[in-house]
Amino acid sequence: MAKTSSVEKNNRRRRLVANQAAKRAALKEIIMDQSKPLEERFRAQLKLAAMPRNGAKIRIRNRCEVTGRPRAYYRKLGMSRIALRELGNLGEIPGLVKSSW
């Protein structure tokens, strides 16, 4: 089980990204537009740099929904390999059969 503080920190980042996504996208659009004047693009770049760094989508860490484990994460299922194995052994994941021979 991951530390609760790490999981909560990641959840705060998710909320911050969701709140600032539109503003960040608009500023990036201005920065990448070559037809705009250089001064306007530079001002947009300064505004983007002044925003909180945790508002960037890249700062979010994929974590298991069950345990909070950050490694061995399956994107399709939203959980780690260990949680997947435990739930699979209990028969709580439909369609998952543990092989044995």
What does this entry look like structurally?
There is one protein chain. It is elongated and about 70 Å long. It has helices at 4-32, 38-50, 81-90; strands at residues 73-74, 79-80. Helix 1 packs antiparallel against helix 2. The longest helix is centred in the first third of the chain and has 29 residues, at 4-32. The model has no long low-confidence stretch (mean pLDDT 93). It has a two-stranded antiparallel sheet. The relative contact order is 0.14. By secondary structure, it is mostly helical. The protein has two domains: 1-61, Helix Hairpins; 63-101, no CATH class.
Which fold name fills CATH's third level, the topology of the largest domain? Answer: Helix Hairpins
Trace the largest sheet across and list its strands. Answer: 1-2
What is the percentage of strand-forming residues? under 5%
Task: Give the N-terminus to C-terminus distance in angstroms.
Answer: 31 Å
Helix content: 40-55%
What is the highest CATH level, the class of the largest domain? Mainly Alpha
Helix/strand/pairing class, anyone? mainly alpha
